[in-house]
Amino acid sequence: MAWIDLIEPEDATGDLKVLYDTIAEKRGKVANVLKGHSLNPAALKEHLDLYDAVLFGASPLHRSDREAIAVVVSAANECDYCVRHHAEALQAYWRDEARTQQLADDYAALDDLEDQLRTACDVAQKLTVSPGTMREADVHTLRDAGWSDRAVLDIVLVTAYFNFVNRITNALGVEVTDGEATGYTY
Fold first, then answer.
1. Which end of the chain has fewer CB within 10 Å, C or N?
2. Helix 115-129, helix 149-172: angle, nearest 10
């Protein structure tokens, strides 16, 4: 399941058990990526708070926009775990498997991607693969596409969050199983 020891929900005690129980109640099960934090429950708690704020908090970005950015960033980072998990979440909104798969494979080739979302994906891709090349012009590009400054911040937060999580997942060898990417409550 990972290259380090993990604590499974049935073996958890104390603060970790409370966190796992809360996660399972809210999401239907505990994702392997969260189990990756099991040796440091305090980090898991903070991770969950950040995840909830960035992906589920109030934002000018629609949830589907955030999931699309998650897929684009995760694909750029070759994080199969997050691509599969967040493509599944995006499917709840798009309801088009071929379109979702194309986003993961090569979003730039997706003919029907709205210009505003395409611009957000372009900036997310750039921030992921060459963060040192980001310039004020990138913010202007997002604004010109119709995104507010709050939306610009949220695009950057979603992008940064998935770069963070992709690196944890890839570095620890967290596996995505056939049942792992499905069955969550969103």
1. C
2. 50
How many residues does this entry show for the chain? Answer: 186
d(CA 116, CA 109): 15
CA 31/CA 25 separation, integer angstroms: 12
- Written as six digits, the tokens of 81 are 């775990």
Q: Tell me the domains of the chain and their CATH numbers.
A: 9-56 (no CATH), 63-172 (1.20.1290.10)
Burial class (CB in 10 A: 0-12, 13-18, 19+), 166: buried
- pLDDT tens, position by position, 34-73: 999 999 999 999 999 999 999 999 999 999 999 999 999 9
Question: What digits encode the pLDDT tens for the residues 91-146?
Answer: 999 999 999 999 999 999 999 999 999 999 999 999 999 999 999 999 999 999 99
Q: What is the 3-state secondary structure (H, E, C) of 97-160?
A: HHHHHHHHHHHHHCCCCCHHHHHHHHHHHHHHHCHHHCCHHHHHHHHHCCCCHHHHHHHHHHHH
